[in-house]
Design brief:
Blueprint (H helix, E strand, L loop, with lengths): L9 H31 L7 E4 L6 E3 H25 L8 H26 L21 H25 L13 H6 L1
Antiparallel strand pairs: 1-2
Helix pairs in contact: 1-2, 1-4, 2-3, 3-4
Main location: membrane
Pfam family, one: GtrA_DPMS_TM
Protein name: GtrA/DPMS transmembrane domain-containing protein
């Protein structure tokens, strides 16, 4: 069986640029949802949402806010990536969405772990509390942790979605668009 070599083409670069633009809009949606949740709920993002007994670990409100923001941004990003980035056709496939969502969940786990490292007081990666003291929106640690982690996990998300979710998008005819494509096969 001949081995397929992967080479980066103009198509891949274009897809990555479109994915980055969609991702940028997703970052704005994601951060907007986190800010809204932070302002509309009475909870401090760093306070405990759920203790993970019998350990000393906790799920904090910033984990909950980040997870809800992920759901909203993931739905928006799927549609934009399906239509524009990978040009996957007019038909939404449940399997394609489930793959996108599964990858999103895996990336969310990585994001939450990174976020915990940025927010935990004993972490070597902890964001500084003297500068990010929460006095203004720009000085809120949870917002910066959210932004940093979303940007950090975007390349992983692109790679996994390109290889698994939208792998058959290029060159495959969309059966909903053309009956000629089906008769040629």
């Amino acid at each position: 069986m001949p081995s397929r070599r992967f080479s980066i083409t103009r198509t891949h670069v274009g897809e990555m640029m479109r994915f980055a633009l969609v991702g940028g809009s997703g970052v704005l949606v994601n951060l907007g949802v986190v800010i809204l949740l932070n302002r509309l709920t009475p909870f401090d993002p760093e306070s405990v949402f759920l203790p993970l007994l019998p350990t000393d670990f906790n799920i904090r409100w910033f984990h909950v806010f980040a997870s809800l923001a992920f759901l909203v941004a993931n739905l928006c990003n799927f549609e934009l990536n399906r239509i524009w980035t990978f040009r996957a056709g007019a038909r939404t496939e449940r399997t394609r969405f489930l793959r996108f969502f599964t990858i999103g969940l895996a990336v969310l786990v990585v994001q939450l772990l990174l976020m915990t490292l940025l927010m935990h007081p004993y972490s070597p990666l902890e964001l500084p509390t003297d500068v990010l003291d929460g006095t203004t929106g720009f000085r809120t640690r949870a917002y910066w942790a959210q932004l940093i982690t979303v940007i950090a996990v975007t390349p992983l998300s692109f790679l996994l979605n390109r290889l698994w979710t939208f792998s058959r998008s290029r060159g495959a005819p969309d059966p909903a668009r053309s009956t000629k494509a089906r008769s040629r096969v």
